[in-house]
């Protein structure tokens, strides 16, 4: 589902990642939440899947710059 409706707290619960990790992955341009008028991040279920995959790849030894390359993530 591509609708971006979940807060970072919900995404943290669903992925097991900390909110800081999620913000770091955004900073590294690996995930792209939308922002509400108030500045809150909103994520989709596709983003949740992507975050899980990013975390798995990083644990397997990839670097964030490698994951930005096209084709490195299945969810692209």
Quick synopsis:
This protein has helices at residues 8-15, 19-27, 45-59, 64-67, and strands at 34-35, 41-42. The protein is mainly alpha-helical and 76 residues long.
The count of helical stretches stands at 4
Task: Return the average pLDDT rounded to an integer.
Answer: 92
As a percent range, the share of strand residues is 5-15%
Going across the biggest sheet, name each strand in turn: 1-2
Rg, Cα atoms, Å: 12 Å
How much helix is in the residues? 40-55%
Q: What structural category arises from helix and sheet content?
A: mainly alpha
Keywords: DNA-binding, Repressor, Transcription, Transcription regulation
Pfam family, one: MerR_1
Domain HTH merR-type: 5-62
Organism: Paenibacillus glycanilyticus
């Amino acid at each position: 589902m591509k609708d971006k409706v979940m807060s970072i707290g919900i995404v943290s619960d669903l992925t097991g990642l900390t909110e800081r990790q999620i913000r770091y992955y955004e900073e590294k341009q690996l995930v792209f939440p939308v922002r509400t008028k108030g500045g809150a991040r909103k994520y989709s279920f596709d983003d949740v899947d992507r975050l899980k995959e990013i975390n798995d790849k990083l644990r397997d030894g990839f670097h964030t710059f490698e994951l930005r390359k096209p084709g490195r993530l299945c969810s692209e």
